Amino acid sequence: MTKQKIKVVISDLDGTLLNTDHKISQYTKTVFQKLHDKNYLIIVATGRHHLDAMPIVATLGIPLYLVTSNGARIHSPAKELLFSINMESDAVKSILSLDIDPEITTVLFRENVWQTNKHNEKLNSFQTEINYHPELVDFSTVEDLSAIKVFFTHEKHSKLLELRDQILEQHSDLFSHAFSLPLCLEFMDKSVDKSVAIAKILEKENFSLQEAIAFGDGFNDEKMLHATGKGLIMGNAPDSLKIKLPHLEVISTNDNDGVAKYISETVLE
Hints:
Layout: E1 8-11, H1 13-17, H2 26-37, E2 41-45, H3 50-58, E3 65-68, E4 73-75, E5 81-84, H4 89-96, E6 105-109, E7 113-116, H5 121-124, E8 133-136, E9 149-153, H6 157-171, E10 175-181, E11 184-189, H7 194-205, E12 212-216, H8 222-227, E13 230-233, H9 239-244, E14 249-250, H10 258-267
Helix pairs in contact: 2-10
């Protein structure tokens, strides 16, 4: 893909634009401001909730499209909600009524709060600025369980794999799912994927997927990396993702400003 062909730059947040402190470096901000000055269309696509992601992307200081909850929400550069889809209450109930290991932290992404069955310090550390508040609940007492997505975390990937298989055995056609990190399993409405949301934005802006490059580090980025003209995998991505997409280039890590360095050396040069 020639750099002349690139018109759109798409990036994931965690493990990609964000360093391990969940922040965007000053160098990355400078590079993205140069992209904006040269009229590239910029899209950030994350598994995070929009209330959580908005203050983070605001630090870039440029207008951009924001795809959140893996594609369940799209916000315009003016922060206007363009698209949203939820999981219906009965669908969520069918997941939560399974015999889920009590050691697993379960989270429902609701519109204004995230509800969880247990306090999880590691999860709280992902929010450097609390815009999106946690609420401790007993899910068996909640009547309306409609949600943007259902999220499970445990320090053992194998436990989450078992849970994924358990859910898919019952509902293979109801949901889409992804591991955003090996320790984070997420279920969404079956129509939800970052790549689908990105295609909607590009259609609106009259660009094709072939004119886009995308950066990501998780299995929730897989279709997005595959669909765009050029997909780039972060050096810090799990080996299993690199093995699954062997044709894609692996760049430097998130802590080494991998995205910004690639853009600076390849797109802006």
